[in-house]
Amino acid sequence: MLKEKKHMDERILVCVYYGPNGERLILRGCKIAKRLDCPLYILTVDSKPFDEMDAEKSAYIAKWRRLAEENDAEDFILKDNEERPVHKVIAEVCRQKGITQIIIGQTAQSRWEQISRESIINCLLREIPFVDLHIISVARYLKNPVNNYDKGVRAYLVKEGEDYRLVFKHSKNVVYEGIFFKECGTDFNNGIFRFMNEKETLQVEVIEDFVKDFTNVDLETNDDGS
Question: What mean pLDDT do residues 101-122 have?
Answer without folding.
Answer: 71
